[in-house]
Records
---
Amino acid sequence: MSNKVIHEENDVLHSLIINNIPENSMDMEVLQQLFINLSAITSDGNFKPVVIRSRGDNFSMGYDCSCHLVKDNDFLLSVVSLGTGIMQLIRNYEAPVVSYCKGFTLGAGLELTLISDYSVGEKNSKYGLPDILFNFPSIIIPPEGMRHFIPGNTVKELATGRILTFNESLEHGIIFRDGNLQDAENMATSLNNTFFRRIKGSRFMKNEIIKAYAHHIETINTKTIRLKELESFRQKLRETA
């Protein structure tokens, strides 16, 4: 297994760095390595803040379009199980988790950002769930539980599949503030861990929602997922960025 998620640690902070350029696609290996690293960080009991970021120009453009296995319901369910597992690990983590976004933050990349406690983004960054337009399902946040992380009007806006500018994302509560990597790290280390232990539970959804979504994934018609068109769409985005 290649090293698609790099874990760096210093005295005050964990960094998880997605290393799957150019798109930083959230393929099965990335999800597995995020899950393994988050599990290890949780198990050590120190609960330092975590910053999730990426190498290259984009935070993540979404799940890997070249993975045709997602058209198999059992495989897709395994992807979603990993994704919701990552969500549970982050929501149960007893310290702040901050995402630092640049370039495109789309699809599963946006979902990863939304489950973080705060997100810091560069002013040229863009956000959205265009995967919806190609019938690609959510793999981290069950749609019914999206309102646990963002306001209802923002959920409706994202459901259009439109890609939002940084300023629009700021207005919709997707991004907390603009800044660079140092700003994201400073935010993570300055936040109060005790405060986050109190509020995180209030932002977590019931297990029934996760179970119902898993059942939905088992039964959806995966033949309607248009991977080639989504791949072409992302390629055009990169070419015109």
Note: The CA atoms of residues 51 and 185 lie 7 Å apart.
---
Amino acid sequence: AVLHIDIYQLSDSVVLMALPLFTFAGFLLSESRTADRLVRLSQAAFGWMPGGMAFVALIACAFFTALTGGSGVTIVALGALLLPALVKAGYPRRFSLGLVTSSGSLGLLLVPSVPLLIYGIIAQQLSQQLAMPAVEIVDLYLAGIGPALLMVVLLYFYCLWANREAPVPRQAFRTRELIDALWEARWELPLPFVVLGGIFSGFLVVSEAAAVTALYVLFAEVFLYREIPLRRLPGITREAMVMVGGILLILAVAQAFADYLVYAGIPEQLFQFIQTHVQSKIAFLVLLNILLLVLGAFLDIFAALVIMVPLILPVALRYGIDPVHLGIIFVANMQIGYITPPVGMNLFIASYRFRKSITELFAATLPFMLVLVIALLAITYIPQLSLWLVR
């Protein structure tokens, strides 16, 4: 009975205005040749480094996922470019498959992350009922930078270690190629600075930054690059808004679910039960990571946010866990879930894209997943990695 009221309240939220705008911008970028330009620029800038092509794959996937907001989109768009390039550079095919598949979700912690945005919206809804300080979306975006960089760096060092016995030859640094790549991507390069600079300087709120991003991407891809004809815009807009509509319904259900939980006193009962068996904050975080990793293997990230945030956030606050830090832990766990069977979405998309079995892809991604778990432990138990820019 209250679902339609929750939908209205959500649609009236200033923060939620960012969701359709960022999503629309992401769909436009995925329909253009942004992926090609990003890979070329990354290769020209970093291909000379030890393990350069592996680092190119990590950087390209992280930024493309951040810009488009979709992990699966990254594998579809960049997979056809990166996998042959990695194999041609001398990396084993199985290693290359694992790298591309596991890197597809790296950008989920970078602005303008849709999962972090949704976590922030749900946390803000709960803050009104739990008398806790509101979680600012800007703080979540700042908090995601350190953990995302940590994941990229650890994966890069693993790539170097895994190929230590047969190092891949470096490519020569060519200034002309870098200049050409920069010139080709000249209209897209300012985009991260527009979003990050506008939000973090306080000049733009998140919804205004989303509007500027959508308008900028629309103008660049349609009128400057001319890669998206005007007749395609209605179709792209429809596809983006169908996704937004689904997320809006999910958020409305989450609000109704949270209302019920608070009204029934379930978070308090859950806290009393957990406190009886788990005394320390460290032990609680261990159990939390195990729970989220298992959920990530079975649930989509949006479903997990809906079900678990209203339950976990009130309990985590009782253990003294910062809600911003909790959001980073949550999304980092779900990021690993994208490559965890049986429902890891990246495994299925990569299986379709590369025509490989789920079993083969899981075996290829397993070492990378273990590296990400190590990063997750650091993110969990060193909150300063997330909060140093926030506090």
Note: The mean pLDDT is 83.
---
Amino acid sequence: MKSWKKAWALILSMVMVISLVAGCGSSQSPTPTGPATETPTEAPTETPAPTTTESTSAGDEKITLRFSWWGGDARHEATLAVIDAFMKKYPNIKIEPEYGAQDGYNDKKTTEFSTKTAPDIFQIETGAGPEYAKMGVLYNLSALKSINFDKFDANFIKVNGQFGTGNQYAIPTGVAGSALIVNKTLADKIGIDLTQQYDWEKLIEWGEQVQAYDPELYLLSVNTGNGVAFFIRTYTRQLNGVPMIDDAKKTLNMTEEQFTEIFDLIDRLYKSKTCAPAAYKAPYHPNKDQEDPNWINGKYVASVGYTSNVQVLMEANPNVEYIAGCMPLLPDRKSDGWVNNCPQFMGIYAETKHPEEAALFLDFFFNTEEAAKLLGTVRSVPPTAFAQKIVAEDGSLHKMTAEAVERSLSYSGFDDGGLTTSAEATKILEEAYEAVSYGSMTPAEAAKDVVEKLNSFLATQ
């Protein structure tokens, strides 16, 4: 990944990003997790039509491909513009867009896979990628002639989209990572410095400091999904230096005592009012902090999320100064735990009737200057140095997004993937997180419940 990091450093210098890494992070080389989304406007809902073919003259076959994704208005508009540009270049190929909210997206895909009605091309949540590959619903892109991966850093796409197979089953849509987006204006007023490295206990100390300053303010805005990623998965990687689940052995790498330690931290984060009340934050899941009146009115010191959320959060409250804050580390950690990968993947359905045409579209999407200019940073920082250079030169690379990525890259870690991020394991962790944050379970009870449920799940794998 050295060549990729060197290219990224060049891009950062082009946008004149001030160095952030002196105060926090580690010096180890990071390995490029988390999805992010914006408030969406949904496409008109229609019953999906099957992929159709209308034969004309030889070499001019009329083809229709379906393409689905989630996101906000900016992402929709940019993606639709790329579709239009592609169809002008290839008039025999029609792309039917299907777009809307992230909420329920995976459930819809599961139904489509079971009924064999999935779209030809679709956006994929990062954590779902390995699971989809295991299910056999993703086409082996390495077997297709119509797409070229030369513009991608070889190691970056190896760890983002090959899922340990040696073949490319999905394409990373950008460079992203975890982020703590800080309202510096408020932090400075209270006397909190998130530009220096700190441990997990410091969060609670700062949370109490915020409450003493003003009981209507909170240090952290966090929802259940991001809380699981930020407080559970990251902490486990710091504790043990390995994923929560050993995919090969189908066993837990975590003990009940270790889970109790994590849930005790979460319990104290909420009881100390370091985190905003879980019940209050529930309507803003997943990744809807920009709709929260408390965020808009500057009542949080920081939002727990992903680098791809930066721009929309800043636009929700443009009246304050922002920075990308450091993230907590265990003093005796075995890994930094914070990882950098991609915000989403793009893939082709294994049952598509037109894999080469679908690959041709993705090649246009990722490898052309026209598409790079149209897409800008609507899916975070672009995944290739070629596209990063374009958005830096045309001014569309958001400075704070670049700073958040730089901050994230200052930490090393690894991507869990596999069973640890499977839908079943995620549901178990989210239910336990909610139970502790709502106060309906003690940390010990939640730990016991999680271990029992995860072991039951693993017994079926």
Note: The longest strand covers residues 62-70.
